[in-house]
Design a protein that fits this description.
This protein is elongated. The chain is built from 12 helices and 8 strands. By secondary structure, the chain is α/β, with parallel strands linked by helices. Strand 5, helix 5 and strand 6 form a beta-alpha-beta unit. Helix content is about 55%, strand content about 15%. The longest helix is centred in the C-terminal third of the chain and has 22 residues. The two termini are about 35 Å apart. It binds NADP nicotinamide-adenine-dinucleotide phosphate.
Length: about 270
């Protein structure tokens, strides 16, 4: 938390991601009063208020007071927010956008000379297991990098990347949780078709995914090596894996992820 000492962190938008970051920072020891959040919805402000975070309906108040301004509104709201607060922001602040598809160039054009960062987080940030990739703007420094890492490491892990790779990150880790939920749904259905009661199928799948993910992140062993440890020669797992290989399942999944990356690029063009 050293990088955020004596800093005020402001959130414009206090929905799912904004609240996840606030909770993470507080859990890591930041004083709730060092946070301030704006949201048009009274219900959201009350929820955040219960964390003892200061709240306001005015985005300009955040822009005037915060050292870090986190734009946590939907992408289509970002530019109207910047228009609203553009007069109040100054170059000693850092603007952080987590809006999917909103490029650094588009942000910088509206915030000339300002230090800014574009970040692509993901939904597991809400349970402290997020992955975020970030690209610093041209006026952001090493000091700003330390602040970004402090914020996003409070809800998982973060890495710096060239901005051109953020479409790939969006496709892999941004959309990734949905692929896992898709796999869960498919496995649950397979279990039910094989005769398992619904509740048992759900439990079996959820605990298997959690256990598998825990093994994967817990040791420096590749996913392929773990697969080999489960799949003994001519055993049950190998029968399934061979079937997937014959039917080209891997290729279809990779094409799906590529489609997500293409869509991310298309959406970025919309927000230029
Ligand atoms: N959720 C994810 O998995 C995820 C992953 C990666 C990136 N992101 C990015 O994170 C950003 C926030 O997503 P989210 O899921 O947290 O959205 P969310 O839950 O809808 O939160 C956004 C909040 O901002 C409020 N808001 C709308 N207009 C505003 C304004 N002009 N000023 C201040 N607040 C305003 C919204 O109120 P209303 O509901 O009344 O509009 C809502 O409470 C998005 O840009 C998204 O691309 C999200």
């Amino acid at each position: 938390m050293k990088a955020l000492q004596r800093k005020t962190v402001g959130f414009i938008g206090a929905g799912t991601m904004g609240q996840a970051l606030m909770r993470g920072l507080i859990a890591r020891g930041l004083r709730p009063r060092a946070l301030i959040a704006s949201d048009p919805r009274g219900a959201m402000r009350r929820r955040v208020g219960r964390l003892r975070v200061r709240t306001t309906a005015s985005n300009c108040e955040i822009a005037c007071e915060a050292d870090l301004i986190i734009l946590a509104v939907k992408p289509q709201e970002v530019f109207s927010v910047l228009e609203e607060v553009g007069e109040c922001v100054h170059k000693r602040q850092l603007v952080i956008s987590i809006a999917a598809g909103v490029t650094r160039a588009a942000l910088q054009a509206r915030l000339p000379g300002m230090p800014l960062v574009r970040v692509m987080p993901n939904l597991p940030a809400t349970v402290g297991q997020g992955f975020a990739a970030y690209a610093l703007g041209r006026y952001a420094s090493a000091r700003h990098r330390a602040m970004i890492e402090t914020v996003f490491n409070a809800v998982g892990v973060s890495v710096e990347l060239p901005e051109r790779l953020l479409d790939a990150v969006t496709a892999v880790s941004g959309s990734g949780p949905a692929y896992l939920f898709y796999l869960a749904q498919v496995l649950e259905e397979a279990g039910r078709r094989l005769g398992l009661p619904r509740r048992v199928a759900e439990q079996a799948v959820r605990h298997t995914l959690l256990g598998g993910a825990t093994l994967l992140v817990g040791e420096d062993t590749s996913a392929e090596a773990w697969m080999r440890r489960v799949a003994s020669k001519r055993g049950t797992t190998e029968a399934a894996l061979r079937h997937f290989a014959r039917r080209g399942v891997k290729g279809h999944l990779i094409e799906g992820v590529r489609a997500a990356a293409r869509r991310s690029k298309e959406l970025s063009c919309r927000f230029c």
